[in-house]
Amino acid sequence: MISLVAGVVVLYNPDDTILSNINSYINDVDALFAVDNSEAINQSFVEQLTKNSKIQYINNGGNQGIAHALNVGANKAIELGYKWLLTMDQDSKVTQTMLHEMFECTHDKDLSTISIIAPFHANPYHTSLVSEEQCSPVLVIMTSGNLLNLLAYKVIGPFLEEFFIDYVDNEYCLRSNKMGYHVIQASRAILNHKLGDLKRHKFLWKRFYSTNHSPIRRYYAFRNRLKIIKIYKEHLPDYCKFEKSRFFVDAVIVLLYEKQKFKKFKMMLRGYLDYKRNIFGKYHD
Questions:
Q1: 285/280 Cα distance (integer angstroms)
Q2: pLDDT over 60 at 199, yes or no
Q3: Domain residues of the chain, as ranges?
Q4: pLDDT, tens only, 253-262
Q5: Which CATH architecture has domain 5-192?
Q6: Is the pLDDT of residue 1 over 50?
Q7: Residue 89 neighbours by CB distance under 10 Å
Q8: How far is CA 164 from CA 29, 54, 109, 183, 279, in A?
Q9: Can you give the pLDDT at residue 109?
Q10: What is the pLDDT of residues 70-94, one digit of tens each?
Q11: Using the 8-state DSSP alphabet, how is residue 121 labeled?
Q12: DSSP 213-236
């Protein structure tokens, strides 16, 4: 087992139910940085949270975005000499053996070439990853539940704060790939993760999943996906081709299955226009 593991959890308007999620992994880390992106601080929650001496609460001064909060946690961990950082969403829960399985799958690998060790993200429709391989390479992975190699982070650079939210994880994975690092996924390490308000649909012979993200999230996803394609189209053309196809798929899913259709399409258009104007960071009316 590798020691010197810290954690960061990004908070946004948390309530007391988040405490049980944090308790699912607090014993697996040596320290936890709770970075709060809330505009209004829940003092009762903070009081409950900080009863645990492992947890350092950090008021981020309002919503600075997921990338900024992750970078705050990574820099704190590096300052204190940690080698690995567990990156957590507030609504994710760690299963008992998750971290053990993640480290187990790397016993025969050169850790200096690995940027991220990832779990399998379980949701109500995908509960387990059927794989003969205990540890498999992947190109991109969601942030929550990952073990971030902080030595690699210092070389790769910080999470891209101009993205604010959405595709922050993808961009970091793609950048690490371009720089010769690998992202690996441990098939037996299970993270219970909430992805928006996920719903499953069937149209003809195809199954679709709608995340029912808000209009503002549609804005960030549309804008940042365009930037991803621009940055990595030469290095990873197949991935970028897939992302281009997602524009059509997402539009169909919103049109057929999601509410607030007009607002979402309006925000997707705004995302396109801001991309063309090179406007990034936090959305402003």
A1: 13
A2: yes
A3: 5-192, 199-276
A4: 888 888 999 9
A5: Alpha-Beta Complex (3.90)
A6: no
A7: 21
A8: 26, 28, 33, 22, 12
A9: 86
A10: 999 999 999 999 999 999 999 999 9
A11: E
A12: --HHHHHHHHHHHHHHHHHHTTT-
Give me Rg for the CA atoms of the chain: 19
Q: Which of 48, 33, 41 is nearest to 13 (CA)?
A: 41
The amino acid that residue 161 corresponds to is: E
Residues 6+ apart with CB under 8 A from 181: 113, 114, 115, 149, 152, 156
Which of these, 157, 199, 145, 197, lies nearest to 29 by C-alpha position?
Answer: 145
Residue 3 has pLDDT above 60, yes or no: no
What 14-17 contacts at long range (C-beta under 8 Å, 24+ apart), as own/partner pairs, is 14/38, 14/42, 14/45, 14/90, 15/42, 15/45, 16/44, 16/45, 16/48
Q: Which residue has the tokens 């441990």?
A: 186
Closest by alpha carbon to 123, among 147, 89, 149?
A: 89
CA end-to-end distance (rounded Å), the chain = 49
